Amino acid sequence: MIKVKPFDKLGGADHGWLKARHHFSFASYYDPENVSHGSLRVWNDDEIAPNTGFPPHPHANMEIITYVREGAITHQDSLGNQGRTEAGDVQVMSAGSGIRHAEYNLEPVKTKIFQIWIEPEKQGGQPTWGAKPFPKADRSGKFVTIASGFAADNDALPIRAEARVLATTLKKGESAEYTFNDNTRNGYLVPAAGAVEVNGVRVNTRDGAAISGETALKVTALEDSELVLVDAA
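The structure corresponding to this sequence follows.
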């Protein structure tokens, strides 16, 4: 089953410096029938104004993946980590037993990100942070795993969840396929740009597609597209 959540129907908030859309219940947006999709707890579509950002705040027991769509995000945390992640690249923070972090847009232009939270398999543990470039040319026409809790995905950023985050760019008419381990997995797909068909179901830019009971996906680009997929328990 594939259930499409149109972008204009998502919950959200406009804080001036931050325009946010929430694929699942988050902050002041609460829908008891839309709290999570398996272990995928949050998918926020954020637009951050220049020279603004999220000041230091705490997290614990969550895997937080940030996919930068445009601009760049600058990270600082209580472990002393600092880093700048540019468009197309990814950062991962395992909050573990607790961490404070800040995320700033220090660029002269708007930054756009997907922020994805996945519940970890176990509570606690030492918090960690990491970032890695994933050039769009390297994932053209195929899904590339960018974050994963599976040991075999050794080129991906590690997370502490039985989950995988993938990305691809497709030219109009191109297709990419993905196979789940079994039909109990929960998939969630969002085009950052373009429009696609997922097993024949149309998904437009920034729409969400909640996938359940499927063993395989065939994603065909209706126009040049960039998309992110989560495969979660």
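The CA atoms of residues 62 and 119 lie 5 Å apart.
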